[in-house]
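Recall that a protein's primary structure is simply its ordered list of amino acids. Everything else, from secondary elements to tertiary packing, is in principle encoded there. The following example makes that idea concrete.
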Amino acid sequence: MIAISLTASMFLLIFIVVFVGQGNVRHVIIFWDEDIRTTVAFRSENSTTHVVGLVGNGGVDPTLVMKAGHTPYILTVINQDTVPHMFFVSGLNAHTKLLRPGENDTITLVSKNESEYNYYDRMQPDKIIGKIIAVKVERFD
């Protein structure tokens, strides 16, 4: 009885390894919604306003990359400066509330198509601070 059980178990194991190894098992579809989260902060240096990437991006005045389609890009903006600022994205007409020093706000951006958007400080609307790029991400095997 034990020998039969061990033999059957070995055949089952070999069958599973061969079945999976031949590519007969596909990746499962993810059913929960995806989102992308980023945090940036306003800072001034030598009387020039900059946006600094804190979470999800790094550097000064970073180019932010979001997924085109239905994936929300959740952007938290912190004012680490001594004057008020308002983060504004042209083309998407999205903006934070007026952020006083030490305050933060979160906005959700969605771009249905591939595109580029400029972001500004609404307190200095004539100066482009950086770009947000919406790219299409496709699955490949």
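The chain has one domain: 36-135. The helical segments are 2-21.
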